[in-house]
Write a structure and sequence with these properties.
By secondary structure, the chain is of the alpha/beta class. It has one domain: Rossmann fold, CATH 3.40.50. Helix content is 39%, strand content 21%. The chain has a 5-stranded parallel sheet, sandwiched between helices. Helix 1 links the parallel strand 1 and strand 2. The relative contact order is 0.18.
């Protein structure tokens, strides 16, 4: 069973992701900011992380600065979901080892395909 941590301050985006992945046998964990996500990571090691950049309290860049320090989690793929198109921010977040960037609004098919690609690399399927 795969577990995906969705870190996004928008309940609508989290709901959409739940709908897209619900029938695929995936456990979805949700956090509305990076701080909540780090708390979840103390208890559970997900198969993949979907991460927004712009969030209150702790944004995606600050989250990644802390995430890369967690021992044993370096092989967890992180996919950024963002409405930002500013190249410097995208380059900055990629420098932390982010595997992919999907721009909002993204299609459900593109989300599924991208997640499947990275879970497959870890020998899992969506």
């Amino acid at each position: 069973m795969n577990t995906i941590l969705v870190v996004d301050d928008s309940p609508l985006v989290r709901d959409l992701i739940n709908q897209v992945l619900s029938e695929k046998g995936i456990t979805i964990l949700e956090a509305s900011n990076g701080r909540e996500a780090l708390d979840i990571l103390k208890k559970i090691k997900p198969s993949l992380i979907l991460l927004d950049i712009m969030m209150p309290e702790m944004d995606g860049i600050s989250f990644m600065q802390e995430f890369v320090k967690i021992k044993g989690y370096e092989n967890i793929p992180v996919i950024v979901l963002t409405a930002l198109s500013e190249r410097s921010l995208i380059d900055k977040i990629r420098a932390f080892g982010v595997k992919d960037v999907l721009f909002k609004p993204f299609s459900p098919a593109k989300l599924r395909t991208t997640i499947q690609q990275y879970l497959k690399q870890g020998k899992s399927k969506v």
